[in-house]
Design a protein that fits this description.
InterPro entries: CHX17_C, CPA2_transporter. The protein is an alpha/beta fold. The protein has 15 helices and 13 strands.
Length: 484
């Protein structure tokens, strides 16, 4: 049911999974006691009832190897002595909204195939008559239908992101801590993340907080798991996970005092993995999410798609193509407007270091009357004015204009940038009617990245250049379509 509702990795889903374990344990225990009791009422089955009871208790004792009662009775007695008023009782009551409580109740009351098999087993053993079995089967069907409809109407987990406003780099001071959530599937991804973060050149005056999430496909279990490695928890990844952990811990030691690293592992179904990413970013107040390029080409020229992250946040997709042995980076920003403003803000933060040589290329249309809306034009002018002022006082910042009339001329200029820079930064989204991009959409093989990013991420590109694609946080009062 949680999978069908697409809320397995949500807060309510996690609570339901944990609660259902206790509920199912108690319900099965009570049902077993009742079944044995009914067998005991039949004179000819008293021996069978006694035999089954002894073996069941022996099996439980053998599995647990523990006959103490402290663990069983402790939480129960604690719950009885907790006062129902303030301060403790009221705090506990305030932890679950009424709508979520009702939704949780319907989730836990919904029975599935396991309960149906239990009813069928009791029907075969004649502990349930045919009429009772039919009634229970019908009730399971009706509960499942009602629970799905009611939970969908009551619970919208995306509302937790509505207050997550202006968590981006544009509204983050250069001298404040930049909080980054990075995601990685394998060691190559961690290396790409580290190289991307190294170009930020964090300092004590401009520190960096990194929260790295190792993503593991859920196999061999039904419930997702989030592992916090700071608490000493270990995942099933073994040596592979440990190697990934050590890569970023060495990065933390390299920039001691300027970088803090916390690492997590999420074990989840691939189609729900983005819930864990967004939830962790929300809890850690991250201003930046870094994702490795989610299409990986193999020897058969096929690809697999990385889980999509919703866009209530800023998104960065990175493809690292070189391991630069030098201590300096030549960074270029292709500026058309839109999401490029966020890319420019991140580049400006990096350019605080003299080891970064930043070149901003603004693509300007020959048609002076064409372009974005008035408001977008004002925003573009503001961020570019700030960058041109910095270029006048900093030798490592260069501002240029490139006049183009259509997408063909833009493509030529982009290819020229590929040869000149170690890293190219560009925004993900631009308006479809932008004259500078006219015609490029027809050759877009990777629509998730857009035409400019598609050229830079092409599999046949032989140049050693890193690509950083940025999307600015989408500000909405409510996120509705959470899986698009």
């Amino acid at each position: 049911m949680l999978v069908d509702l697409k809320i397995m990795n949500s807060e309510l889903g996690s609570l339901a999974l944990a609660s259902s374990l206790i509920c199912d344990l108690m319900s099965n225990l009570i049902a077993t006691i009742v079944s044995y009791g009914r067998l005991g009422l039949m004179n000819y089955t008293k021996v069978l009832m006694f035999h089954s009871s002894v073996l069941s208790i022996s099996l439980v004792l053998f599995i647990v190897n523990n006959v103490g009662l402290n663990y069983d009775y402790g939480p129960f007695l604690l719950g009885l002595v907790v006062p129902d008023g303030p301060p403790l009782g009221s705090i506990l009551m305030d932890r679950v909204p009424v709508k979520d409580s009702v939704a949780l109740a319907f989730i836990l009351s919904s029975q599935g195939v396991v309960q149906m098999s239990f009813y069928y087993y009791n029907s075969i053993n004649q502990t349930l008559d045919g009429e009772t079995f039919s009634m229970l089967t019908t009730s399971v069907l009706l509960q499942a239908i009602a629970a799905n409809l009611i939970v969908k109407s009551l619970y919208d987990y995306s509302r937790m992101y509505t207050g997550y406003q202006k968590r981006d780099i544009q509204h983050t001071s250069y001298n404040s801590e930049l909080r980054v959530l990075s995601c990685s599937l394998r060691a190559d991804d961690v290396l790409a993340v580290r190289k991307t973060l190294e170009t930020s050149y964090p300092t004590n005056e401009s520190p960096l907080a990194v929260y790295d999430l190792h993503t593991v496909e859920l196999v061999g279990r039904s419930d997702p798991q989030l592992i916090d490695h700071q608490l000493g928890q270990k995942s099933s990844g073994g040596t592979r996970t440990q190697k990934m952990i050590e890569i970023l811990y060495s990065f933390e030691q390299q920039y001691s005092g300027a970088v803090t690293v916390q690492q997590f592992t999420t074990m989840s179904l691939t189609k729900f993995m983005h819930h864990d990413i967004c939830s962790l970013a929300f809890n850690k107040l991250a201003s930046l999410i870094i994702l490795p390029f989610h299409r990986k080409w193999n020897h058969q020229e096929k690809y697999w798609i990385w889980p999509r992250v919703l866009f209530p946040f800023l998104l960065t997709a990175t493809r690292l193509r070189r391991n630069n042995p030098t201590s300096s980076w030549n960074i270029g920003v292709a500026f058309f407007g839109g999401d490029d403003r966020e890319a420019l803000a991140y580049a400006g933060r990096r350019a605080q270091s003299k080891r970064v040589r930043l070149t901003v290329v603004q693509f300007v249309s020959w048609d002076i009357y064409a372009g974005d809306s008035q408001w977008d034009a004002v925003l573009d002018v503001e961020v570019l004015k700030d960058m041109t002022m910095k270029s006048a006082h900093q030798d490592n910042i260069i501002y240029r204009e490139g006049r183009v009339k259509d997408g063909a001329e833009t493509a030529l200029l982009i290819h020229a940038m590929e040869e000149a820079f170690d890293l190219i930064m560009v925004g993900r989204r631009h308006k479809d009617d932008t004259p500078q991009l006219l015609g490029l959409n027809e050759w877009n093989d990777i629509p998730e990245l857009g035409p400019i990013r598609d050229m830079l991420a092409a599999p046949d590109l032989s140049l050693h250049v890193s690509v950083l694609v940025m999307q600015h946080q989408t500000l909405k009062t409510k996120v509705r379509n959470v899986d698009s």
